[in-house]
Design goal:
Six copies of one chain form a homohexamer.
Chain A: E1 13-27, E2 33-41, E3 44-50, H1 55-60, E4 66-76, E5 79-89, H2 109-121, H3 126-138, H4 140-143, H5 159-177, H6 183-193, H7 197-200, H8 211-215, H9 217-233, H10 238-248, H11 265-288, H12 312-319
């Protein structure tokens, strides 16, 4: 693999394709404007300064744009920075795609589409099946590209869909052990629960919160989407209210964003599976970066805990 | 005024028109079914037993039905009870209306309709005006008859509309002192903020929570109604999201039912005016029942406090 | 099935084998002692009075004793009571066992022993395997008979072992989806996590808290048992500390009884699986008693929520 | 208007009258003392260093002193700083007053005095009227000059009196809608509620907390002042206890500084009006600095929220 | 000792001097008024009914009155009650004093007065000494008779003074180990800290809360008393503010009634000694009623805990 | 006394014996490794950089090692730093001991050993006495050298034993005033309560948390130690459970680390004495650094409060 942006040291020169994650204009003490960019590739990100920028620069170099950059690595307070010497927009001839520069789910979109369709196919209640299929179609493009969150867990391209696929598989295993669970509600609820994020967030990459995201949040947005879709499709009945409830309650507590707690057993279980998959995602990734015998960095979304990676397992592996 | 149901003493015989507030079937130890009814008139309510009831009785005597009752007042653990001797449904010839038997707002429905129309007329933004007018029309009948709540404040017929009218007047006074406030958002937000209660509650009298009320709550219900109405009317734009936000945030904190806190200044003020009017309603009614120099009963919705009714005011009145 | 104690009505005479769940001596206003007993069979329990009891009665009729009772059903404040006319201890000739009178897990002890041994067999780390096997042996009898708790979930004979078996199966499914999980720690942790209950509680039936239970609690008791066993067996190493940690942290938060939160990923997952199985147990049993279209009674251990049993499922079942 | 201190850029030279807001002595690594000053004018404030200061400098340049300063703007970590070249105390001949250098209420002191006297005149209870008038007289000078707080709301010269005047007007409007309210208690309570700040804070400008402020707080200080004044004036009776209670409870909750919650209806309403006026003050000023379509900075005293300034209003204004 | 009121059984006749603890008038279902009294002697208390009472009875039989009662013990829901046959006020000729009928501190008032004077004598700062002596004089009578609280700890005659004496002795021991402590502040603070209770409560026996008690609380009352006394005595200086602070902060946290936390080291220690003495008082009395090997009743003021009385101590005593 | 490391200024050269408190390896932007050390002597500590370190350096310069250092004081962001020119390990010929470089308790180890033995001698219950003596012996060396904590209170060499000695003296005084207290439980409980810190922490100096410390905590560790020792010594009985309980509950609340609250009166009192001694330690030391008339720095472990050091005391001292 090509050397990524985070692997260069002070004093080195770089010439790379990078994605603009954020861009902010300021005025230097000499009165001239400059841009502070965050640039990223799959290896991570770096802060960069484009001094003496022109109005054209400000217009061109906006978030979510791929650029070709030429510059020097410097350090500021112990952190690498990029001093840009040359920068330009890319064209088709560069043969570089945004997806080459961002992390993404470890499963192809096609595979995820197929899995989800299979689960929808297994939904027996025709109203639930139709509604789920329709809403997935309506938001399909974004749904398979958006991250599950801006940070914390599954915060990469297609993270939302990958999180849903993992939860569906988990739900299938759990429902096999507890036959009282209604898989129609579980599967549909899982597919819909976070779908409002395609409206709450600004995009698949360089994502920020939209106005609707800030004022309503993905939960209320999605409860609405279900209500509007059901009305258009002429579907009525308790199923709709229950699906809206499952979405509404999936964060479980008011202080976590759900105005009603789960009052349907599948809503309670969905909340727990959501939690389980998100935590496994965070833990696995933190563990990968941690040697045996050491503690992970603090995980903010897990009450700021550091987890220990046991040493003894290795000894065992040696023994067996 | 005629002697109400709560003014009779043990041993007295009554013959009154009463409204069934709730009805519950049980089986006595002799194996025969009986009904436990709560019966009410404007003076208050009483528990009543209808022993050895027939299947026809069970069908007839359901909540929200006006009946003619003949019976004796007994006491059980220091509380009056009614032993029913005779009971029958009423007909047109009885010339009794449910509204004769329930408490209601101190303002006529017509007067409240007029006031609200006047405020809607003062809304300058055409989208907000149309949407508010349409939603009020759609739910008009229930809106002017429902209580504002099942208990605590404005829990009488037309309490919802009366609470809205009081808030509108309050908003007008406050906006006159703070001209930065947008009265369009305030007036529309006030009219819509609790409108979801017409779906959350079962009726104007003998109200209980509907399934939608329990699973979604009046806030989410109303955010939805706004979304669906705007879609039907082809209205788009920030106004809709902001009105939805005002409704969504009017309880101010997650633990009080609002998944987002107010993030628009009119949303913040609306929450405060809602609170002020509800508290004045509770305080005024508690004070009316309390002699100077004494404390009110504990007010559950005001942190269980008892308020003191000062003595000194009277002395002053005597002086002046 | 024979008519159980809760199915009799006021005025009926009974003659049954019953188990004493609790017994309390008082003195009547005439100065004579009497016993207040709670008696149970599989159908449920009833309060009973044995008036004018002798010192021999007091000695004989203690908790966890099977008796033959003859008496009359009366009612007191709407609740059935038993007025005892005759009572005696049972002997071998009665052919009645305590297990005939108490609810128990829906799986035989033998089957649970086999399952658990199979899981222990799959533990690859020899220290963990030996320690788990030894501790299970040491407490085997109680472990397979005790309830998982005094109330809330799995509160029946063998409830503890049944809960453990369910969690082991669940852990196997989940570990199949998330291969980063160490099944040695998960399986051993699950078998040991609640084992301290065999010391915390007084017995398999009519269970109350022991002094150690009240002063130390099952978590500290079990951390101790692991420490003492490891010392006796000469096992040292991080594995022991980690197993102690998994037991110590399995309630996840200080206010729920764990002085340390999970800091090992398997400890975190074990906590979630424990929760999931306990909640499924409570929800399934509450749902069984609730008709479609109605809400369950309030479930104290689930934040006092009532869960809704959907109606629509039935319609679907009818259709298919 | 003259260019204020915050409008200069790096490299510019300044020569301005400024007010010392705070002054701190340190010793540089070369062993010589220097002063770190915060200097302000109406436009805002700046950090400044006076190197190699003499003992006379330390004595002269203390908080709340007006100085004439000559120096250069530099930057340190992106923030402007002032390197002082020359500094001197001002004299009468400079014709500069402290009030030229600090922000103040948008109403003249005379106007506020008149308004408050008018409200006191409307108090009918003679004891309440005399006590209020006496206490206002006693603290008059400070009362009309102090800020309402060190930060957050009405934190400018005469902010305290301006906040009181706004609340009085608000109280008048609200009492007109809810005639049960006793305006004597409301008006007197409003005038007295924050009067303790004239003892809690050190002055009208460059305010810090006094020892009494830190150890007792303005609420306890004022409850005391009322008690002492009433004793001196020979006023007895419930009115005094009630006014003390209104002051004591005006922060509403123990964790906000009130050892008793409001137990008089006017105390409850006063708390709400206090809150409403403080929030309107914070919101209006934050909104003034925020363009339509953007969010305000985070407002610490409003749960750290950022408020949105709607875009749509402008469009409407254009339309109408 | 004569048999006390709590030692009689159903059916027995009594003829005793008793103290009225509370009295409430009601109207029976026959329309005639009756009094519900709580009557007490040193052994405890009993509920009593005086049927068909006259207006003279209502005037005579008020709280804190000693009466001679003749009546029969009955039971109601398992609790003894007294049916009054004859009742009369007592006169000098009865030779009965209220103090014969109420529990009181295990130390004479004279002894407590002496102890306290001795401690005041040891205060070296003249201002603190004079102020403490003056305030003690001013409230002396009530101070040596009132309970420390209505319930929970030291809730008997002279409980307040006894609690203060215990704390003074404790303070002396602790100050001997930590010489940094200022005994002037400690001794004066201890004597004054709860003195406001002589205004907060209605009397030494049958105590309830006064209006000042309910609206201001003993802490604010006492801060005021110190302020007024210092003003009268012409004492000024930091000592006064600090003593007021010690009283103000002695409950340590806002939610326990102190608007400021301790910010003087003696205030912090005083809070801890107050707590220690109150808890020892509650624990000792609960333990006296509890057999070895058993748990005390739940102690509401100690987080509702039940404490265990160890068995093993006895064995040791037997051994030695 | 020799000039300590914190008393040097920028530009000065030092040549001192210092103790390494912590050591961390990093890689500079030039790719070469360097060590960041914290070095200390009795006066305090300083950050130091050892550039271009060799593998031998990394091996030698680890925490808790005494070194001889030669270097220059520089400053970085207003804080002194040490640029190391020469560094070497010390040998016997340097005649420097670690104890010369660290702060320690104001009482000799011998004196503390004697005091503790005296208290153990006063324990009358033979089981408690033997167990306490044995555990103290087993951990004696560390027990008399370790700090009581890593920060906050008694965080110096022998701080643990000194804290225990202070608490024992305090317990003796308190038990003299409240004879109901069992001194056997108090003395033994005090000696054992924090003994687990000898396993939780890494050493007497430069202490960090061990793996057992992080995963189990000193409370669980010590409950275990008591259990294992009792088992080895063949001691059984309630005493052991009660001592384990006293240790388990000595932090009083779950959120402070005790899974059970005190349920034995001596456990409750021990918790309060622990608190009292820790707070006196923190307050005394903070006061020593604070001039009269000023506030201490914020004390993190005392709710972040600043305490006031009164001025008036001095005046009094002058007067008397």
């Amino acid at each position: 693999m090509k050397k990524g942006i985070v692997h260069f040291n002070e004093g080195e020169h770089i010439n790379l394709y990078l994605l603009i994650k954020s861009a902010q204009r300021s005025v230097a003490s000499n009165g001239k404007p400059f841009l502070t960019l965050i640039l990223q590739d799959k290896s991570g990100e770096i802060d960069a300064k484009l001094w003496d920028c022109t109005p054209q620069d400000e217009e061109d170099y906006t978030p979510d744009t791929v650029v070709q950059v030429d510059g020097d690595i410097t350090t500021f307070r112990g952190k690498n920075q990029l001093r840009i010497r040359g920068i330009r927009l890319t064209t088709g001839q560069d043969h570089v795609k945004k997806s080459d520069l961002v992390a993404s789910a470890p499963m192809s979109i096609n595979e995820m589409v197929d899995t989800m369709n299979q689960f929808i196919f297994e939904i027996r209640n025709p109203n639930i099946q139709r509604l789920t299929r329709t809403l997935l179609k309506r938001h399909q493009e974004a749904f398979f590209e958006f991250p599950a969150a801006v940070k914390n867990h599954h915060e990469y391209v297609s993270g939302l869909a990958y999180h849903v696929v993992s939860m569906l598989n988990l739900a299938k295993s759990v429902a096999a052990l507890y036959p009282a669970l209604d898989t129609d509600l579980l599967y549909s609820g899982i597919i819909l629960h976070d779908m409002g994020k395609v409206i709450e967030l600004s995009g698949a990459t360089a994502a920020s919160y939209t106005l609707e995201g800030k004022l309503l949040g993905h939960i209320s947005i999605m409860v609405n989407e279900i209500g509007k879709a059901a009305k258009e499709m002429g579907i009525e009945g308790e199923e709709i209210t229950i699906l809206q409830h499952i979405v509404l309650s999936h964060h479980s507590k008011p202080e976590w964003g759900s105005p009603k707690p789960p009052l349907i057993k599948e809503a309670e279980i969905l909340h727990m599976l959501d939690n389980l998959d998100a935590k496994m995602n965070m833990l696995s990734r933190a563990m990968e970066k941690t040697k045996p015998g050491e503690f992970t960095e603090r995980l903010f979304a897990m009450d700021n805990r550091s987890f220990y990676n046991p040493l003894f397992e290795q000894k065992v592996t040696v023994d067996s």
